[in-house]
């Protein structure tokens, strides 16, 4: 028999499972420190917040998997722009929601496309290109809104996103799970997914085996922009309101969620299930810190320390050898 | 002509061109910019970013990146302000002790970053993102609200004028220190480690110690930047450094230093930092002169920065097609 007698321990040692274990541990810890932390309603709420982070982190996962120091720092700004487009274009009208959503997704896609062109053809390092794009998108938001967004949220968004579907769990959690299954299938079962892992692990080999590397990169960054805009849609449904910095706090945590979920920043290794678990862990950490009643500075320091510890546990690079 | 050709062959040619462009446009539309007093004032506000950009360059040359420099600047600055106390003349001990303490804190923070990256082998982008929370949180703990005071002797010091503005002396000192550094074996180690860590390791260089040193040096330079900033604005602010981190990366890239490490230098980054501010000034001028609403400024700023970042790649694309 070549099969290991008990495959379970190996499965449990994969980063996504470690992250899930960590999430359970954090939940228990929260319940110990503040009874009521693991209440059904509380957990649902944590799942919802994790869902936004998770949805925005879809694009980040794809981009990081694509390798070549792939990263997208424009996600937060695109989240804001997506939400603002829907908010303003519909002006609260249900009938206009679908076209508004399509426009928002299209604009997100276009912004990502420009990122991809800059990175794949003009050879600008991803960090720098998407950083610059963040500034441009923020400018677009200011020009589009004049600094003060006008509009309203269509009421139907509340019933899609905030109202419970089944078992008191609201729609955004289901949307997240559906997207999670979809993205995982996209990565594991489609030609796109195979090509993405290929260019992430080794560009040259991928090119020699017939993958159109540049086109794949451009498409991947465009998808990242589109998923960010979708994150804006979900966030708007939750908050029912927009402001100029809506998405900013999500940018860097998406990267952290991807890394905590075991996707290597070097590319080519990992998957979306890990990112979902990572988003859950990060959300639990911040909720726990808020529940503990730590002052702002204490929360920031602890968040940073926890992130460092998580990285040290499984985000480490290989040792140099002679 | 040969001098011109040699200048254009430098990695910092782009920064130089942008700088000259910025100066020419400013000279045409805002001649008052060049009156000695205004010029000196402007240079003084540029100085902190120049120092951050130089620090970032050292880290990038060694193959890393530091996304916590803005937070370190803030921390170092609020430590200085708290050490000075509220009196206009707290005596030499508190005055110079405060500056020394701030510089020490900056260096230590940089060294901790370096330890995480070099010895714990964490990925620089995400590790320094994590530590930026720690430094920012500590800064909030040291000085929760903007306030505090800076001894008048320090305020006068950074406004000193001896043959040329103080800021120019400071830049000259940095350049001299850099020229000295380039002659040492540390410089060779830094470039070697950034260019090819495996080869550097094999040839017996201590990759860890070199990286740690680069981060600590960046921390010290950031501490110096904090000193200039604090003495200039004469107060403390627990959120002041944030935007400077990304600006320092932009200055490094415009300055022709390769983000993957091992090639470049601080001359480009200094030019890049000044060009960054001049371009912002030009954008502000044109928004004003064309009677655009102020919201356009962010958008144009962002676009100009992206174009500046894209310029080297675009030039390469154009050259390849005869």
Which assembly state applies to the chains in this document? Answer: heterodimer
- Which strand-content bin applies to the residues of chain B? under 5%
Biggest sheet, spatial arrangement of strands of chain B: 1-2
Task: State the helicity of chain A in percent bands.
Answer: over 70%
Mean pLDDT of chain A: 83
CATH architecture of chain A: Orthogonal Bundle
Largest sheet, spatial ordering of strands of chain A: 1-2
How many domains make up the coordinates of chain A?
1
DSSP summary: helix tally of chain A: 14
| The CATH architecture of chain B | Orthogonal Bundle
Describe the protein in words.
- The complex is a heterodimer of chains A (322) and B (322).
- Chain A is mainly α and 322 residues long.
- Chain A has a single domain (13-314), classed as ABC transporter involved in vitamin B12 uptake, BtuC (Orthogonal Bundle), CATH 1.10.3470.
- Chain A is built from 14 helices and 2 strands.
- The model of chain A has no long low-confidence stretch (mean pLDDT 83).
- The longest helix of chain B is centred in the first third of the chain and has 28 residues, at 91-118.
- The mean pLDDT of chain B is 85.
- Chain B starts with a helix and ends with a helix.
- Chain B has a single domain (11-314), classed as Orthogonal Bundle (ABC transporter involved in vitamin B12 uptake, BtuC), CATH 1.10.3470.
- Helices cover 76% and strands 1% of the residues of chain B.
- Chain B is mainly alpha-helical.
- In chain B, helix 2 runs parallel beside helix 13, helix 3 (36-61) crosses helix 12 (242-254) and helix 5 (91-118) packs antiparallel against helix 11 (207-233).
- Classes of the chains: A mainly alpha (322), B mainly alpha (322).
- The interface between A and B is large, with 52 and 51 residues.
């Amino acid at each position: 028999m070549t099969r290991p007698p008990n495959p379970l321990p190996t499965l449990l040692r994969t980063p996504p499972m470690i992250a899930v274990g960590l999430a359970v541990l954090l939940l228990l810890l929260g319940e110990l420190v503040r009874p009521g932390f693991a209440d059904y309603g509380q957990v649902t709420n944590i799942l919802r917040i994790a869902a936004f982070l998770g949805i925005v982190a879809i694009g980040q996962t794809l981009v990081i998997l694509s390798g070549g120091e792939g990263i997208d720092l424009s996600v937060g700004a695109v989240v804001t722009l997506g939400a603002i487009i829907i908010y303003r274009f519909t002006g609260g009208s249900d009938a206009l929601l679908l076209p508004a959503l399509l426009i928002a997704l299209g604009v997100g896609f276009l912004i990502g496309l420009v990122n991809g062109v800059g990175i794949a053809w003009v050879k600008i390092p991803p960090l720098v290109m998407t950083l610059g794009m963040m500034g441009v998108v923020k400018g677009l938001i200011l020009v589009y809104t004049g600094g003060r967004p006008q509009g309203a949220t269509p009421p139907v968004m509340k019933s899609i996103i905030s109202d419970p579907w089944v078992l008191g769990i609201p729609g955004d959690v289901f949307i997240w799970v559906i997207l999670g299954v979809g993205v995982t299938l996209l990565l594991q079962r489609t030609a796109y997914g195979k090509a993405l892992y290929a260019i992430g692990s080794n560009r040259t080999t991928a090119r020699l085996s017939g993958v159109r590397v540049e086109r794949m990169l451009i498409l991947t960054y465009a998808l990242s922009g589109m998923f960010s805009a979708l994150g804006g849609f979900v966030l708007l449904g939750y908050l029912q309101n927009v402001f100029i910095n809506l998405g900013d706090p999500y940018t860097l945590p998406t990267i952290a969620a991807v890394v905590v979920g075991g996707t290597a920043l070097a590319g080519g290794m990992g998957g979306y299930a890990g990112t979902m678990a990572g988003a859950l862990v990060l959300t639990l950490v911040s909720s726990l810190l808020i529940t503990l009643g730590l002052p702002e500075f204490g929360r920031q320091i602890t968040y940073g320390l926890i992130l460092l510890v998580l990285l040290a546990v499984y985000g480490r690079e290989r040792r140099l050898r002679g | 002509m040969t001098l011109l050709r040699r200048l254009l062959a430098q990695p910092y040619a782009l920064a130089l061109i942008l700088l000259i462009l910025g100066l020419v446009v400013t000279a045409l539309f805002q001649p008052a910019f060049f009156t000695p007093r205004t010029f000196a004032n402007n240079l003084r506000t540029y100085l902190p970013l120049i120092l951050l950009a130089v620090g970032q360059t050292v880290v990038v040359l060694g193959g890393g990146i530091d996304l916590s420099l803005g937070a370190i600047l803030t921390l170092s600055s609020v430590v200085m302000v708290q050490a000075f106390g509220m009196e206009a003349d707290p005596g030499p001990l508190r005055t110079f002790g405060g500056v020394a303490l701030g510089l020490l804190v900056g260096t230590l923070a940089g060294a901790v970053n370096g330890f995480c990256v070099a010895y714990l082998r964490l990925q620089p982008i995400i590790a320094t993102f994590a530590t930026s929370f720690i430094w920012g949180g500590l800064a909030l703990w040291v000085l929760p609200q903007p306030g505090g005071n800076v001894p008048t002797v320090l305020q006068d010091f950074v406004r000193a004028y001896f043959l040329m503005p103080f800021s120019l002396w400071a830049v000259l000192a940095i350049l001299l220190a850099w020229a000295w550094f380039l002659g040492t074996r540390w410089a060779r180690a830094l470039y070697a480690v950034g260019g090819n860590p495996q080869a550097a390791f094999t040839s017996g260089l201590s990759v860890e110690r070199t990286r740690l040193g680069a981060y600590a040096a960046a921390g010290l330079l950031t501490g110096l930047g904090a000193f200039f900033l604090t003495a200039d604005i004469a107060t403390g602010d627990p959120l002041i450094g944030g935007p400077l981190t990304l600006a320092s990366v932009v200055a490094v890239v415009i300055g022709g230093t390769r983000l993957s490490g091992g090639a470049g230098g601080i001359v480009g980054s200094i030019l890049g930092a000044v060009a960054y501010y001049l371009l912002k000034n030009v954008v502000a001028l044109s928004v004003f002169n064309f009677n655009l609403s102020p919201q356009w400024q962010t958008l144009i700023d962002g676009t100009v920065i992206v174009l500046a970042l894209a310029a080297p790649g675009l030039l390469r694309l154009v050259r390849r097609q005869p």
